[in-house]
Amino acid sequence: MGRHFDAHSQADFEHEFRDLDLPEVEGEPADTNGFVHRLTFAWQRRSDTLHLRLGVTLAVSSNALKSPGDLGAEDLRPAVGIEWRSGPAWLALYADDRLGRTLVYPGFELPLRPAPSHEIRLDFRSRHGTG
């Protein structure tokens, strides 16, 4: 879900739900369900040569959402990315917790056009990056 401010800027809200299979520990089942919600609020700016995304993600169990007053700034994680065009390729740098913990990692996209009616794209980019 998003709101466009102009042709180049928009704000987004994303919700992801995951049902994790929590393992038993020393024969004891988990004392909570494995339902995890990821709520991301972000602002994006795009041009022909630069994409910028600034946002934060709250990733918590459904039980934590029952008491939102208990949530704090320490529960937020960055959801940022910058992509820039270098010739036909896009180069990128992301910082988010998508890979399990907050990390900074690179991204790229290289479009190949072997014929006018065909296009092949090789990329490693954040699924919810700026592109």
Summarize it.
This protein is mainly beta.
Write a structural description.
- There is one protein chain.
- The protein has 131 residues and is an all-beta fold.
- It has one domain (2-124).
- The protein is built from no helices and 9 strands.
- The protein has strands spanning 2-4, 9-19, 35-46, 50-61, 76-78, 80-86, 89-96, 103-115, 118-124.
- Strands 1, 2, 3, 4, 5, 6, 7, 8 and 9 form a 9-stranded antiparallel beta sheet that branches.
- The two termini are 16 Å apart.
- The mean pLDDT is 84.
Structural class: mainly beta
Give, in order, the helices and strands: EEEEEEEEE
Q: Specify the overall morphology.
A: extended
Q: How helical, in percent, are the residues?
A: under 10%
Per DSSP E runs of 2 or more residues, the count of β-strands stands at 9
Give Rg in angstroms. 18 Å
Model regions low in confidence, pLDDT < 50 over at least 5 residues = none
Q: Features of this protein?
A:
9 strands; 131 residues; mainly beta
